[in-house]
Amino acid sequence: MMKTIGVLTSGGDAPGMNAAVRAVVRTAASLGMTVKGIRRGYNGLIEGDIIDLDIRSVSDIIHRGGTVLYTARSPRFKTEEGMAEAIANCKRFGIEGIAVIGGDGSYRGARDLSLRGIPCVGIPGTIDNDISSTQYTIGFDTAMNTAMEMVDKIRDTAQSHDRCSVVEVMGRRAGYIALQTGIAVGATAILVPEVEVKIDDVIQKIRDTQKTGKKHFIVVVAEGIGGVEDIAKKIEESTGIETRATVLGHVQRGGSPTVRDRVMATQMGYAAVELLNKGIGNRVICYRDGKIVNEDIYEALNMKKPFDDDMYNIAHVTSI
Ligand code: ADP
Ligand code: F6P
After folding, report:
1. In what order do the strands lie in the sheet with 97-102?
2. Residues linked to residue 236 through DSSP beta bridges, in sequence order
3. Is residue 112 scored above 90 in pLDDT?
4. How far apart are CA 138 and CA 103, in angstroms?
5. Measured on CA atoms in the order 177, 180, 181, 187, is the torsion positive or negative?
6. What CA–CA distance (Å, rounded) separates 24 from 9?
7. Does the pLDDT value for residue 229 go beyond 90?
8. Is 13 in the pocket of ligand 2 (CB under 6 A)?
9. How far apart (Å, rounded) are the C-alpha atoms in residues 282 and 147?
10. Is the predicted pLDDT of residue 218 greater than 90, yes or no?
11. 42 Cβ partners below 8 Å, 6+ apart?
């Protein structure tokens, strides 16, 4: 049985990561294990930036965005020298297993550590919901709610001026945030990397809805498509409708996590520690069809995530 485990957050921060850290610490304590907090992702493991976490040290964080453990992208961790330092520090601090909260990149690091004798369990934490093995990632709901609120505000001014607003939301190469946010704000068109749509089709749709009395328009564009300024220019030139472009940016990464993110993070943190407590690593925690399950990390990294074409179609049909 493991006596001491580590926990770290890695890659882009996501609201709900703190709730996951709290769940890891408290579940471990309830099983008689102690927890070390590794700061700034894999950098903390390399540099020995490691602190003790007891049940009270994670009080008052469940409602806070960001991550109290800080996060980083660590190119050094991908080198042999960095990995050797990381393993040496695990030994030095008595860390026998690690809960890694992050995205696919962080999972690859977790796989490498597991291979070198430090069992790791991945917990999906990213606003993008772009991890193939899970239907849900911690932070997705909060980010979408933030994006929705921001676009609602943009809609107020678009409506007042009879304008079109083209809004870019985050998601790296994936369109999950764009799709659901687009539905929630009643966007006339949603552009995502997973579905090929021509700008002329968007313009045609704007014209069609204009004929039935629509006077202001929202077009939601995923970051993976980008180019909102150009899209706005083309819409304005073709339709004569005054058009503005907005990139929402990092506002989507911050803020207090929603109920869904806090609860999911708590369940996932708990599940990760249950595995580590049994000495099991090389796994990732997943949400599938209402259940928290786990999956082999290699299988997880090789999976392809299907895009919800039905939902995309519903968005199209209901935005006339
Ligand atoms: P995310 O976890 O959100 O996908 P990144 O892709 O930036 O974020 O990965 C986070 C960190 O995980 C990287 O900075 C690096 O330290 C580690 N990592 C990423 N890819 C690999 C890899 N192929 N092998 C080992 N470690 C990796
Ligand atoms: O993965 C989360 C995310 O916010 C993506 O949506 C975005 O592409 C990227 O991180 C931005 O990263 P950075 O922190 O480097 O600006």
Report:
1. 50-53, 34-38, 4-9, 97-102, 120-124, 283-288, 291-296
2. none
3. yes
4. 10
5. positive
6. 12
7. yes
8. no
9. 34
10. yes
11. 8, 10, 72, 74, 76, 77, 82, 86, 106, 109
Three-class SS of 90-140: HHHHCCCEEEEEECHHHHHHHHHHHHCCCCEEEEEECCCCCCCCCCCCECH
> What is the spatial distance between Cα 133 and Cα 155, in angstroms, rounded to a whole number?
35
CB 313: neighbour CB atoms within 10 A?
11
Q: In Å, what is the CA distance from 207 to each residue of 52, 101, 215, 248?
A: 60, 45, 10, 26
Instruction: Supply the pLDDT for residue 111.
Output: 97
Q: Which of 8, 9, 10, 282 to mutate to test the pocket of ligand 1 (most atoms within 8 A of CB)?
A: 10
Give the torsion through C-alpha atoms of 113, 48, 102, 285, to 10 deg. Answer: 50
Cβ proximity of 20 and 62 under 8 Å = no
Q: What is the pLDDT of residues 142-153, one digit of tens each?
A: 999 999 999 999
Question: What tokens were used for 252?
Answer: 């989507």
Catalogue the active-site residues. 128
Question: Is the pLDDT score of 86 beyond 90?
Answer: yes
| pLDDT exceeds 90 at position 1 | no
Which ligand ends up closest to the CA of 72?
1
The tokens describing 204, both together, are 């045609």
Q: What is the reported pLDDT for 269? A: 98
**Predicted pLDDT of residue 12:** 97
Tell me how far apart the alpha carbons of residues 164 and 235 are, in angstroms, rounded to a whole number. 8
| Ligand 1 pocket, residue 27 CB under 6 Å | no
Q: Which ligand does the CA of 250 lie closest to?
A: 2
The number of residues in the chain equals: 320
Query: For the residues 27-49, what does the mean pLDDT come to?
Result: 98
